[in-house]
Amino acid sequence: MATAKFFSFACLRNESSNYGELSPKPHYPSMPKYPKGVSVSSDEEKSIHGTESKAVFSVNGMSCSACAGSVEKAIKRLPGIKEAVVDVLNNKAQVIFYPSFVNEEMIRETIEDVGFQATLIIEETNEKTSQVCRIRIKGMTCTSCSTTVESAFLLIPGVQKAQVALATEEAEIQYDPRILTYSRLLEAIEDTGFEAILISTGEDRSKILLKVDGVYTEDSMRIIESSLRALPGVEDIDIDLELKKLSVSYKSDIIGPRNFIQVIESTGSGRFKAMIFPEGDGKQSHRQEEIEHYRHSFLWSLVFTIPVFLTSMVFMYIPGLKDGLDIKVVNMLSIGEILRWVLSTPVQFIIGRHFYSGSYKALRHGSANMDVLIALGTNAAYFYSVYSVLRAATSPSFKSTDFFETSSMLISFILLGKYLEVLAKGKTSEAIAKLMNLAPETATLLQFDDEGNVMKEEEIDSRLIQKNDAIRILPGTKVACDGFVIWGQSHVNESMITGESRPVAKRKGDTVIGGTVNENGVLHIRATKVGSESALSQIVRLVESAQMAKAPVQKFADRISKYFVPLVIILSFSTWLAWYLSGKYNSYPISWIPSSMDSFQLALQFGISVMVIACPCALGLATPTAVMVGTGVGASRGVLIKGGQALESAQKVNCIVFDKTGTLTMGKPVIVNTKLFRSMVLREFYELVAAAEVNSEHPLAKAIVEYAKKFREDEENSVWPEAKDFESITGHGVKAVVHNKKVIVGNKRLMLEQGISVPVDADEVLAEAEELAQTGILVSIDGVLIGVVAISDPVKPGAREVISLLKSLNVESKLVTGDNWGTANAIAKEVGICDVIAEAKPEDKAEKVKELQSLGNIVAMVGDGINDSPALVAADVGMAIGAGTDIAIEAADIVLMKSNLEDVITAIDLSRKTFGRIRLNYFWAFGYNLLGIPIAAGALFPFTGFRLPPWVAGAAMAASSVSVVCSSLLLKNYRRPKRLDNLEIGGITVES
Length: 992
Description:
alpha+beta, 7-stranded mixed β-sheet, elongated, copper transport, translocase, copper ion binding, nucleotide-binding, metal-binding
């Protein structure tokens, strides 16, 4: 079962440690304490402690998360330590401290006291060298637009990486904050002609939008701004005077939104009122605004286009109406032509002005997009028609033929296509909207008196929850934020976040996740993570980032888009010229020319049709829309796929390397057998063992302590005897003195090193345990081996069936583990894996992955621990079990939130289905253009007399984009393989 910790992504800090308490340290001056509930600003902190410093140490000898946890714990015990983070992968420790209490040498000595070699790294800097900024871009129509913006970013000094997603209309830029600011990035977008809206700066801070009523002057808003800036923890304030909106960025550890509202309402003698800005999610509101824009534009275009269509194609065949429209006003200029000219002009220049501005922006930066094709095609039809009617008005004999219906109907059909396209594109990101809707709208805030009794209850907007708030969760309601239980008992349904189907029991001290549902009892919780820090927000951000990332296959369409529009313009001009010259030199029979046209007009229609039928949009949308839907479907099923690259690699996987503990097994060790070789009361035996192991955070140690608690069920709080001279021996076990008895708990190698003989009976018990896939722990007291504790980590239900199904999908499975050979072989045999590597260090796992890749395999690695991270990074696709460590999840390409092995198959199958859809989309896009352009150019006309009018070509062009998006939307009907639906786990049939 996944926990809230999974989503913190604060990697580098893990809860499993082989090390225990350190020996007593020299006495240092203690840090000053603050009254409970009092937070201080960074300036106040400096005045009390002095200026903080940062030191980075190279730490040699760390091999796993246990080592990192031991070093981190030791450092934090020192006075004057503000923060300490240990990176086991890069063998580094970063410490932020106050020099008035501790110095670098003290910290270095402390690390070496733990048993590792430490060296101070001088050249590290306090400055961040990389930051990620997300920006929404309005006005992009095709891949040419997104490529233009992306190129503009890459030309800016300091930009390290930039990607622009057409489907999501967003940009993600990685830049050096020492060289430029995000405002420069916004300017770059504006310079390319598009509108830019900042989504996030990537800085570690929270943000809230507030609306202020009662503000009538600019001075009032400035007074409010000054009041807010004076608050500790406020980072930045942006003001929109027109909307009376304040955007406040702040440090959630120090202050929160309710403080801002209180300050605003206490400013100006209480005449100001503040509230959360009444606006939905920025992306959704922007999408709705875009939908409304195209809907209104289309409806207005119909108001003018329908009369144009009727006068040119319907009324001309109705006696009476035809005579009225043919009445001449000036020379050969008729009433019908004047009506069509007047009605089509607003469509061309007012309703269709978007295409002019889009064309100008593109051409100004040396590129051409879909707007250029539409503008050229409609202008050719419109201005030729203007020329024709003006000539008719000045000539007593010239009979004009106008194409006003072509230009107006073209624009109308394209607007209809864009309207349907943005409607469909909005549905591709429904997964994110559903995730965000998991959070409740309101929460019940509790206030307590000095004795801990509830003094007041208040219903507030859930966005106003601050850290350390006490929140009441009633039965049947959603948990408002991440936190832990401070009172009450209940069962919580966490399936929407973790995938755990059964409600999870919660009592005092247990963690809860925002968005989950409280089933029965009342709970009081203490908020720990709010806003952007919550598990739900982390998932949403992960899915959004995945939808931003481009699949490598999309680069093909991006390359084509650079040349597509110029090539179409050349083809269009060539088509017109070929038909015009053919007509002028009588290369085809005059009977081919319709009675209402001449050869020039016929050639012009062919040229315009070619120009407007070509569709670069369909090519640009083929990949990103499928990736968006695919990643959204995955997220809804508990499979978080980090973008197109992961999808593309996963669909090629033919070899999977599995870790054992927590991946193939449950990851929750339990004691299954105890064998004593001396006469001793079992309760006394486990009291001594637990007293020694309680100082260790190793999973096996925790299993022993939990089991020992069963002998103390009558005691509410198990306080174990004091363990003196505690020592943790990395990878082997622990030593301690309990009740004046020397207790050693560990493996056979530790016993032999300590000079303790291991009898034949104990060897037999160990061998038997290994055959049963169990881990044997030896216990000696005062130099005599007393017993063996057998610990089992049971295989996950359905693991064997999953391995079998992978084999049927032509995917080979391997097992790589750090456990002993006996246990590894027993587990492999149980699940049906033949290829096993045991006693492997983290680097050995990565080497195995690289070895398989060198043989031509596309390798996926499935793991859950910090020691799996190198292999997860080395693999073509890293899959992290959701209940695993943060660093493993950060390193992985795909996160299996449910910690369910079936989802390995779901991830591979979904990626294959998604890429099958991408191939189909490209088939439609390319096939449409390859077939449509020749037909529009008149390839069938000489043989069948069929020609494609420009307005029909425009309708077909609009339909092509819609068809590609709808094709991608069909992925929402994805069903996992039927064989998984019939998978039997422990005699129970599992249904999807």
